[in-house]
Write a structure and sequence with these properties.
Blueprint (H helix, E strand, L loop, with lengths): L7 E10 L6 E11 L4 E5 L6 H8 L7 E6 L2 E2 L5 H10 L2 E4 L13 H12 L4 H14 L16 H13 L5 E5 L7 H16 L3 E6 L2 H4 L5 E6 L2 E7 H6 L4 H8 L2 H4 L5 H10 L11
Parallel strand pairs: 3-8, 3-9, 6-7, 7-8
Antiparallel strand pairs: 1-2, 1-4, 4-5, 9-10
Helix pairs in contact: 3-4, 3-5, 4-5, 5-6, 9-11
């Protein structure tokens, strides 16, 4: 296995869903890379295909074309048993959009975080407890929450617990699929703050969000996905200061924290028209 280029490297990825006449192309020749210790934002509106790309990296949906390399290994040609081995090793962790999918509703948070360590075996009870406390601290999850069940946590706390659980396998890449509605601004800030420590640990992070404004502060690079295609990518600061694609301009312009001013109504209308997004009732008067 030779590891050259970024740890995660996706090139020309295509994903189709459905069969025959119902077949739809969801991902169109998409490419992106995430290096060790790098935080990359994957930004796009609902339905643009963000989770589909993440699921393709994990082998949960099949690529119909293109290449996905993880640590130099081409994963798109993996057999079932290679995938099972890949999942068991936990080199890449996916924190689901709905953290309740990563956490067992019947287990207290400490036991959910400990589960991957228990499955792997070889650690004494006291060592596991100590690891749980350490990973909870990494994501700034208060120790008092460890004895609660997932249903007794806020959305942001749940997601941090899911990240702590993901960290236990010492992954080299974490894909974090941000819940669109479950996180309020304050919880999002806490989740983001909990992640910056990963950078120094050399863990790569692909942070999926629909909101460029909320993640621009921590991402090194940003990839903008629009209708299944990567329309723009680059260092986040460059992309924010000089957005080129109309969709990116709309994203930046819709986040006053980034652009300083909001897009005026006419400019917004012009960009939406350029993207073919306009409803007739949306014409400026
Ligand atoms: N298993 C599937 N079978 C058929 N279509 C699917 C499947 N999964 C996703 N899709 C479709 O693919 C498109 C992209 O979905 P995806 O979940 O990747 O979007 P997303 O960018 O993650 O959106 P959101 O921000 O709402 O989570 C959508 O039109 C969705 O309906
Ligand atoms: Mg999604």
């Amino acid at each position: 296995m030779s590891e050259t280029g970024p740890f995660l490297s996706i090139e020309g990825l295509n994903v189709h869903f459905g069969r025959r006449r119902g077949k739809r192309q969801i991902i169109r020749s998409a490419g992106l890379g995430v290096d060790a210790g790098e935080i990359v934002g994957l930004i796009g509106e609902s339905g643009s295909g963000k989770s589909t790309i993440a699921r393709a990296v994990l082998g949960l949906v099949r690529a119909s074309g293109g290449s996905i390399r993880v640590g130099g290994e081409e994963v798109t040609t993996f057999s079932r048993s290679r995938w099972r081995d890949f999942w068991r090793r936990g080199v890449v962790q996916y924190v689901f959009q709905d953290p309740l999918r990563s956490l067992d509703a019947d287990l207290v948070i400490a036991d959910s975080i400990a589960e991957p360590l228990r499955i792997r075996g070889g650690l004494a009870r006291a060592e596991i407890d100590e690891a749980v406390r350490r990973f909870a601290a990494t994501v700034r999850l208060d120790e008092s929450l460890l004895s609660r069940h997932p249903g007794e946590l806020s959305g942001g706390q749940r997601q941090r617990a899911a990240i702590a659980r993901a960290l236990t396998t010492r992954p080299r890449l974490i894909i974090l699929d941000e819940p669109v509605s479950a996180l309020d601004a304050a919880s999002r800030v806490q989740v983001l703050a909990s992640l910056t420590g990963l950078r120094t640990a050399g863990v790569g992070l692909l942070y999926i969000s629909h909101d460029l404004g909320s993640v621009a502060g921590i991402t090194d690079r940003t990839v903008v996905l629009y209708q299944g295609s990567v329309v723009e990518h680059g260092p986040t600061a460059e992309l924010v200061n000089e957005p080129r694609h109309p969709y990116t301009r709309l994203l930046v312009g819709s986040a006053p924290t980034l652009s300083g001013t909001s897009l005026d109504r006419l400019e917004r209308h012009r960009l939406r028209a350029e993207l073919g997004l306009d409803a007739p009732s949306d014409r400026p008067g």
